[in-house]
Specification:
Blueprint (H helix, E strand, L loop, with lengths): L9 E7 L2 E8 L10 H13 L7 H13 L3 E7 L15 E13 L2 E13 L8 H15 L4 E4 L13 E12 L13 E5 L1 H18 L10 H5 L14 E7 L5 E11 L5 E9 L3 H12 L4 E10 L3 H5 L6 E14 L2 H7 L7 E7 L7 E6 L6 E6 L5 H4 L15 E4 H7 L6 H6 L3 E3 L2 H11 L12
Parallel strand pairs: 5-6, 11-12, 14-17
Antiparallel strand pairs: 1-2, 2-3, 3-4, 4-5, 6-13, 7-12, 7-13, 8-9, 9-10, 10-11, 14-15, 15-16, 17-18
Length: 464
């Protein structure tokens, strides 16, 4: 049972490398800008950290509203040292961090509470002073104590979070589909697509997304700020409306809306140009293909680009000429951090009957130990069966200790590797051949791979 920590203001001081800092935890209140001075400066620091523009008044008001509505926990670090002339005020945090409660889909109608981490910034002039580790450790400890089995984030820099136990758990692609001759499919598409009113789509979108979320492994629940963004009513990045966004809705044979797409036309030379997908959502892959057919059939469009496509995309296999489907980038979308292996592994579905004892290495201590996963009976049984032997790396306090295979264990791995295996985005054998998993023998590797495999590739369309 997870509990939801109160957003109570609190603070502490610490020193590092001759500098003194105050770490504050607080939330955004129900009022606007005038009643939320700390949260406003926090938002300005976030925009600064990601090289964004100075937030407008409208942008600040909207952000304060969703931060308050979702009960987001804000963390900020302030320098306590004298501020030199012309430098940023000491009211502006030198580091930011936040987290909130969500849900992660593991399979059809199967979800687990998830602790989401976002807006992590540290001003470069205050780097290498342990600020990020202090915020991350405190926040994950709070999540663990509140009963959350898993934390998640989307990373702007992939090299940062492995040392905190996060592993890449879902992957997406950025694709381009040739559209000058339309989209030729091997099988006829389903339903029909109509151009739509953006404001009406903003009302339809939450339920269509919820249907997608309930059925799609890897999906995370979205916050309220999404609907203005995907309908062009407010762009997070520019802080204003986006009149270039257009929308369309897919209807089934009973005229029920079961999918939508929002997109923008980017003019090239002359009148022709490309379409860029802002959001494309349906619980049905066939409906998503029909929405692609609509996009590729619009006049003057030479190419349709989608920066958030599936790794294993049915669209490519449904095309007559898959050479018209070009993958331009592959990237990790969702990073997962297992905080409670018993709860996390008990919650996910399994397709095979195996029994495996796993040694997990977790330098932060939340998940460290020996665990048995047994799916051979009527019900899955996951239990912690003991401590793993300590190593020299443990004694030295390394953030990612060397993995060793102790007696009694079939396999051994660092906790970030379990995050990557958890939703089935990567095979255990792939991690083994990369040197990230140790096994008793290849039979044990086969058992682990069969145990963690899934029937559907995970797909997360909601960065945060």
């Amino acid at each position: 049972m997870t509990t939801h920590p109160a957003n109570e203001p609190r603070s502490e001081q610490y020193s590092a490398k001759g500098n003194t800092y105050e770490v504050k935890c607080f939330g955004a209140g129900p009022g606007g800008i005038d009643e939320n001075a700390e949260a406003v400066e926090w938002l300005r620091a976030v925009s600064q950290g990601f090289h964004g523009p100075e937030p407008s008044k409208e942008s600040l008001e909207k952000d304060l509203a969703w931060l308050n509505g979702e009960g987001v926990r804000l963390r900020a670090v302030y320098s306590q040292d004298p501020v030199p002339p012309a430098a940023l005020s000491d009211e502006r945090p030198v580091a930011t961090y936040c987290s909130w409660n969500s849900s992660l889909t593991l399979g059809a109608q199967t979800q687990i509470p998830a602790w989401l981490v976002s807006e992590v910034t540290v001003r470069p002039t205050h780097a290498r002073r342990g600020i990020l580790r202090r915020m991350m450790t405190a926040d994950l400890t709070e999540a663990h104590e509140a009963g959350f089995a898993i934390a998640a984030l989307t990373a702007s820099e992939a090299t940062i979070y492995g040392r905190f136990g996060f592993g890449a758990g879902t992957f997406n692609t950025s694709v381009a589909v040739a559209a000058e001759s339309g989209l030729k499919l091997k099988a006829p598409s389903v339903g029909r697509v109509e151009m739509a009113d953006n404001k009406a789509v903003a009302q339809l979108a939450p339920q269509i997304f919820e249907d997608f979320h309930e059925l799609t492994p890897g999906s995370l629940k979205r916050t309220s700020k999404w609907w203005d963004y995907v309908s062009g009513q407010f762009d997070w990045h520019t802080g204003k409306t986006d009149p270039e966004v257009r929308t369309a809705v897919h209807y089934d044979e009973n005229d029920r809306a079961d999918g939508y797409v929002s997109y923008k036309f980017v003019r090239g030379s002359g009148f022709k140009g490309t379409l860029e997908v802002v959001d494309l959502v349906s619980p049905s892959a066939q409906v998503r293909i029909a929405l692609w057919e609509y996009l590729c059939g619009l006049d003057l469009v030479t190419e349709v680009r989608h920066p958030n496509a599936q790794m294993e995309d049915p669209l490519m296999w449904g095309m007559v000429d898959m050479a018209d489907y070009e993958v331009r980038k592959r990237y990790e979308r969702l990073w997962l951090r297992i905080l409670d292996p018993v709860a996390a592994l008990s919650a996910r579905p399994y397709r095979s009957h195996r029994k495996v004892t796993v040694s997990l290495v977790d330098s932060l201590g939340f998940a460290d130990g020996l665990y048995t996963i047994d799916t051979t009976g009527q019900q899955t049984v996951v239990e912690r069966v003991g401590d793993r032997p300590r190593t020299d790396d443990d004694a030295a306090g390394k953030s990612m200790p060397r993995v060793e295979l102790p007696d009694g264990a079939d396999v051994a791995m660092n906790i970030d590797a379990l995050g990557s295996l958890y939703l089935g985005a990567v095979k255990a054998s792939t991690l083994y051949y990369a040197g990230l998993i140790k096994v008793r023998d290849l039979d044990a590797l086969d058992d682990l791979q069969s145990l963690m495999s899934t029937s559907e590739h995970p797909y997360c369309i909601s960065p945060f």
